[in-house]
Amino acid sequence: MQYEILARPAASAARLTLQAGESITCEVGAMIAMSSGFNVETTTRNKGGGGGIVKGLKRMFAGENLFLNHFTATQPNQTLIIGPGLLGDIIHYPMRGGTLIVQGSSWLASATGIDIDATWQGLGKALFSGESMFWVKCSGAGDLFLNSFGAIYPVDVTGQYVVDTGHIVAFEDSLEFRIGKASKSLVGSFLGGEGLVCKFSGQGRLYCQSHNPPSFGKLLGPKLKPR
Amino acid sequence: METEIRNKPSFANIRIKLGPGDRVIAEADAMASMSSTIDIKTMWSGGFLRAVLKRVFGSESLFVNEFSTESEGELILTQPFPGDIECLELKGNTLYLQPGAFLACEPTVRLGVGWAGLRMLIAREGLFRLKVSGTGRVWFGAYGGIFQREISDEYVVDSGHLVAYEPSINVRIGMAGGIFSSFFSGEGLVTKVTGPGRIYMQSRSFGGLAAWTNSHLW
Amino acid sequence: MMGELLFSGGVFSDAIDGGRAGAEIELLPMGILARTPDGKRFEVPYRECQLEIGGFSGWMVFCRNRDRSLTIFCEDRKFPSALSSASAGILDEQLNDKLKKQKSESRRGSLIAAAVLVAIVLLVVGGYFGVRAGARAAVRAVPTSVDREIGAMAFESMELGGPELDDPAVAEALQSMIDRLAPHAALNGMEFEVHVVDSPMVNAFALPGGKIVVYTGLVAQAAEPEQVAGVLAHEMAHVTLRHGLHRIGQALGLAAAVNLLLGDTGGLVAKGSDLFQLASINSYSRDQENAADAEGARMLHAAGMDPMALTRFLEALKEEKGDLPGVVSWMGTHPRHEERIEAIRRQAAEWPKQEFAKIDVDWADIQELAK
């Protein structure tokens, strides 16, 4: 499979070229356009993998759709264009057997060799991170596509790094993740608007997004007419 | 202190490398991520009374955060909406920022809040505005692209598009055309600015986004 | 006498990187000197100085040199008089001229601002009353088919708060009362149709066009069928008096006026489509409630039913209200029942005495079905 990311970074879309027999699993609604030689299948499970309805339900709570779309090319050189609903960037992450934890709404598509599981990160962490109660755990090998609100920037963490909860896109599971207060005093953390933040420690790569969907929503929400 | 505005112009964010003794002040909630070696101190923005005024009338946060470090670290600051960020070096001069535009500054910059007057309220620009003065760098952001213009004569800006202006700029409210075309063309009231001085404008307005979204909700 | 000679202000000059800087301004015997924080000095001799007054505050004094490449500015209110005395009168003519102009302009500015404010207030207040009157006239011109369409649309999109009752017997009994009342309606073209919703709420409401929704709670609460007929007549009166349309007209009109004032025509369309989703259509004004009472009572009397049954229902509700907090919605939207009871009683007293025929339904049966 070959890929190219178009219209970066404001309105990115990924153009994938698949050969006969190759397939990719996408978030429902991610398909923008495709050539005619695709077989599309909608299931609650990974292609050829286990999980089924339970994993599907977990994904639903993770902010993802219950269903997944599998696109399998039946002819050579088929192109598929996918993109997220939000304005923002897309990145390609080649998985080589490790595990990447992806924030609920940032998972866009993955090759069939990747197992997708919505993992529960523990009550305290989920409650205070606020942004997304669940995280999608991707493991295996193959191509993985992630999307973001705003630009994506990678951070290679060695030691400790602090991220505001709305800005996390994904992180390698070699990183330990803990909720903490932003400044030394708890009162200051809240008054200063930073509230609780995620603290990563260990060694590994972390992907952050430049913009924060809840902050944007907080600004726009009051200006919208009531429904 | 090394700074860089990245991902211009659609998703601009500021990356700051702090060394020992460096300090930077940022609007509450501006921090996206940072090294754990950086300390945050929360303070009233421009004193208690001014902070309260700013919160109530300028719809800005009561507090600002001061970031510093004893060793070194990296700090990413951003704004809530997608758009551009501009950096300006003050040399003893003053700049007025519209509510919501201020992002960060060096500690040598004075932050204050000023009464913008009834005319700015009528222009839907807010009753209060932030006043930045002193010396040092100021970062401010906008929804959409930022463009600046040196004004010598009169210039017309649609309301909601003015981001910042110098005190030497006179601002008046006017109608875009006659009474009829002003009300029915969708331009409504406009802001007329007279120089000398510089203004900063944004290519989109947040009110415009809200109106567009509202008209497409179903 | 010399005044203060040091002020803070700023400089515009191409000799500065970025074109501007703040400055300390000193009035020297020969001219105006500005010193920027990084030590640069700029001077405009009084003889060359061209003055302008403006800036955001309207009181900033700009002193420019002959080719206008250098401008020193200061906002201090004491600066003009200090400048006048320091320059030994050289600049007085320019200064007085510009100050006078500025004063008259600022006076004119505040006059215009005051006039605009007054005009806005007048437009809003006048617009409100004008629109109310206009809406009344406009509603009369609207064909009744519009009422039915709006009613049908609102009914489709409404949260009723419960399922429709399965057994048609209750709806049939209520419909028979409506059919007796309908020939006496003041307006032809409405299609009265009752829907019974299974919910303990003591509530009933009408939609434009004639759809009337009655909750089983209200059926259970009424001691006799005449009381329900009274409620139905009141709701039918809202329909025939077209109160729903009046409210839409007023709300739309007001929104339209406000939108035009603010130059936001895009929002107008959104507001319009919004209003047709009306769940708020049941909240009628005090005048409309009184009118519906009077018209409802007239219809009851004309159909040979006891108009006092409505007052008995209101009284029963008043007594029961304490025991049924939050459930008696029909009262919630219909306040001031004592006044209303009195008004209906006064009206009924003026009509000729008449024997009222009992409504021929087995009320105990119907109430059992509505439980």
Folded structure, characterized:
The complex is a heterotrimer of chains A (227), B (218) and C (371). With 227 residues, chain A is mainly beta. Chain A has helices spanning 52-61, 123-129, 186-191, 213-220, and strands at 2-6, 13-18, 23-27, 31-34, 38-43, 68-73, 78-82, 90-103, 107-111, 114-120, 134-147, 152-164, 168-172, 175-181, 196-209. Chain A has a single domain (2-221), classed as 4-Layer Sandwich (Double-stranded beta-helix), CATH 3.60.160.10. In chain A, the strands form two sheets. In chain A, strands 3, 5, 6, 8, 9, 10, 11, 12, 13, 14 and 15 form an eleven-stranded antiparallel beta sheet that branches. Chain A has a four-stranded antiparallel beta sheet with strand order 1-2-7-4, with no helix packed on it. In chain A, β1 and β2 form a beta hairpin. The relative contact order of chain A is 0.17. In chain B, β1 (2-6) and β2 (13-18) form a beta hairpin. Chain B starts with a strand and ends with a helix. Chain C has helices spanning 79-86, 92-141, 144-157, 168-181, 216-221, 225-240, 243-262, 265-275, 286-302, 308-320, 329-332, 337-350, 363-369; strands at residues 6-13, 20-27, 31-35, 41-45, 50-54, 60-64, 70-74, 193-197, 204-206, 211-215. Residues 259-274, 276-282 and 322-329 of chain C have low confidence and may be disordered. Chain A binds chain B through residues 9-10, 87-89, 150-151, 153, 155, 159-164, 167, 182-185, 188-189, 191-194, 197, 199, 201, 208-212, 215-216, 218-220, 223-225, 227, and chain B through 6-7, 10-13, 27-29, 31-42, 61-65, 76, 78-82, 100, 206-207, 209-210, 213-214, 217.
